[in-house]
Structure formats: structure tokens, C-alpha cells
Design a protein that fits this description.
By secondary structure, this protein is an alpha/beta fold. The chain contains twelve helices and ten strands. Bound molecules: 3-methyl-2-oxobutanoic acid (KIV). 3-methyl-2-oxobutanoic acid binds next to β8.
Length: 300
Amino acid sequence: MSHTKVRSTDAGQSVLKVTTQTLLEKKLRREPIAALTAYDYPTARIADEAGVDLILVGDSLAMTVLGHDDTLSLTVGEMLHHARAVRRAVRRAFLVVDMPYGSYHLGSEDTLRNALSFVKEGGAEAVKIEGGRRRASLVEDLTAAEIPVVGHIGLTPQSVLRMGGYRVQGRSVPEIEELLADAAALEGAGAVALVLEGIPRELAERITAAARIPTIGIGAGPACDGQILVFHDLFQLTFDPPAKFVRSFGDAGLLLREGIERYHRAVAEREFPNDSESYHLPRGLAWNLQESAVPSSLAS
Ligand code: KIV
């Protein structure tokens, strides 16, 4: 049986939809998976059309777009709002939606209800939850409800209070053993992929070699089956110094700042709009716009 699904774009072209099977086949063929976060229609559409394999509506949304200091306050409603916008844009990529902090911490039934809303209302093809072995039974429950789950281990930003900050994980023997056990437990519970964040490259390589499911790294070195970055990091749209693992692929911040300054100047100097950017009365329509001809309702 073929697992390929065909979707058509607005331009009427057919595209091969990326599915969990595609990701698995890429791992087996050792073809790197390119993943990126997106939170709105235009950037998701550009990422999808640029051929990214997986798009994550990440809870980094809280910081990158909504201006919070961490991801903890993000709500299910806020996530759904952005997931719907991204869903409208994405035709080809595999679409994953992050479960925000608190949306999978109150037991299986509540987790299922929230995850179902991400699938049914947000168009998610998988949900992502943070944490290792302690999430294994939730991963089983979601998988039993036909909801694919992407695990996320290592530096898990939703654990910032417990961790006392954001720090690289898996740098001691006990931590390495824990992360290996976490990866195995999530795979055993049915996870379809694993995000490995903020761990030494050697450990990520070991997990990737042992895992049958694809690993997608962020700050986890080059040996992972795929890489993911936050959209705003890729284009210098954040206002803090970037983490060590971030590489800029363009300076959209500078582009926007310069563009807005030029716009501002053009307005201030009455250079914008010019005649060709203005509407005109139809040719031949003689219209006396002298004050005397203006209807009294406009003249006041
Ligand atoms: O929310 C997010 O952007 C993420 C990625 C860092 C993997 O979880």
C-alpha cells in the first residue's frame, strides 16, 4: 500500500504530502529532514513552498511572537489560533503542533481533549509534548487515539522552573543514562519522532543510531536525522543574543527596519504616495472640485 498523499496548491500544482512514513523513509535513506517553526500564514506558506519537510507550530510562539519571557503562560486557545493560520498555509509539509505547558499535565482525559482539539480544529498531523519516560503513558494514550506524537527531550523549555534556567542537558553519566532511557521509552510508547534539544552532539548521535524513529535536533549537533530551528532565529527577528547553535540565514530584522525607515521618510517628505500610486477621476468626467461644488456634507 502506498502511503503517499497528493495535495494541490492554490496554483493547481500537485505536491507529495509529507507523512510520518515519509519521515521514516528519510531516516532509513539517511536523507536529512529539514524542519522549521512557523506561527502565521505568510511565513508558513513560504516555508512550505520552500520545501521544508516538517513545520512546527512551536510554543516558542510565546516568546517570538507574543513577547513573553518564557513559554509557560501560552494557552491552548492561543496555540489553536496560530495553528489554524498555519494549517491554512501548509500543503506539503508534515504539520506538528506543540502542546503548551499545562495542556498535558492534568491527566490522560484532559490531554486527549486538548490534543484532539489540535487535530480537529488546528489541523495538526501530530502533537509534540515535552518530557521523557514520565510522558510514556500519555504517548501511548494519544497514539491509541490515533494521534501521532513527537517526543521532545533534553533541554525542555517548559521545565525552566524546575531546571532553574536553560542549560545543556546530558553532560554527566546519570543524565546520559536518563536521556537514553527517555528516548527508548518514548519510542516504545509509539512516538513517531523525537526532538533532541540542547544535548552534546555525541549523545545525540548515540540516540539517533539506537532509535528506529527519526530524531530532529536543535542544538544537538549534525548527526540527528533532521534539524529544526526557530523561524525568528533564522532571520534575526529576536531581540536577545542568539544561542550557540543558531545560524542566521538572513537579516529580516535589518530589512524590515530599513524598509520602515524609508517608508517613514517618504511619508514625512510627502513623496509617498505619488501620482501613479493614486486613483484618478475617470477621463472626461468634468468635475469642478472648487469649494463651491463640494456637497455641504463633505465641506464641513
Ligand atoms: O517551540 C519550539 O519552537 C520548539 C522547538 C525549539 C523544537 O519546541
